[in-house]
Amino acid sequence: MFTILKWVKKLFIVFIVILFLIFLLSRGHVFKPDELEYGLTFSKKQATDLGFDWQKVYLAILDDLGVRKIRLPAYWDEIEPTNGQFNWQNLDWQIEQASKRNSEIILAIGGRLPRWPECHFPSWTGELNKAGRDKKILAYLTKTVNRYKNNKNIIAWQIENEPFLSHFGDCPKLDKELLDSEINLTRSLDSRPIIITDSGELSTWVPAAKRADIFGTTMYLNTYSQFFKRYIHYPITPGFFRFKKNITQMFAQPQDWIVIELQAEPWGSAPYQNLSQADRDRTMDLNKFREIIKFSAKTGFKEFYLWGAEWWYWEREVNNNPALWEEAKRLFK
Predict the structure, then answer these.
(1) pLDDT tens for each residue of 59-74
(2) Which of 65, 130, 147, 304 is 20 to 30 A away from residue 137, measured at CA?
(3) Which of 302, 263, 306 is nearest to 61 (CA)?
(4) Report field, pTM of the whole predicted structure over 0.90
(5) Which of 284, 289, 256, 252 is nearest to 268 (CA)?
(6) Are 184 and 152 in contact (CB under 8 A)?
(7) Which domains, from first to last, does the chain contain?
């Protein structure tokens, strides 16, 4: 009996020490509300899939919402739909319109970019072996960076999207050597910072942060798990992200830390346009939008790129529900 009590006391002490260490590692500077900066990601593909004139949606984001920080994916399958033939018209227009308004642009480049199916390889690459496809990816990166590197509004290059979460999406297995080649190639072509992103809830951050000038995390609270076949609310506090940042800083020292993807649209068992209002509301509605904005402000990050502008527009135009769009407008302005 005495031995059991002795071990219980030891375990209790260890438990208290662990809690104390977690408490210490969860501490960190939290920015004041007037110091926080907000932008968003725009996907031409998503706007088109929702049935909209994507240019009209984009201009509404720039002019009605007043967004001045924007992440744009340079989708490889749209830029090089035919092997060796490049179509820059749509991306040129997006960059030109943002630049006219003096907006800061993060240009995301690579085979794996935002929006499902995550990897956006041209169909013709299916005829290539891996070595051939890798060579083509590097050629596409070279042409993209060289085309836009003289644009002063592009503030950073994002190389791939959540590359260390390669099990998510219709993507090949992660090739770290190829990723490093993409990073080194981009650095050789231009001096602007490299952004590497990772999942806030499902990844360790260290491999991505070690390669980054700017590290970008995602930040989600409510999702649907295809694995568990159920809706999930992550049981985390803002301190969880401060803790991960403090741990990661022991192994990596990027120049800056941002939230590259802040959840502001539903994540259900199907695309949100195919879900009922009740199912959409389970992972995102006006109250949850406000909740995650307040949550994120306490995580120790300063800059946030919201994920879901096309959905706010869809709610306004299709469901006559402008509340999310108007809430976002107040945030940006």
Answers:
(1) 999 999 999 999 999 9
(2) 304
(3) 306
(4) yes
(5) 284
(6) no
(7) 2-332 (3.20.20.80)
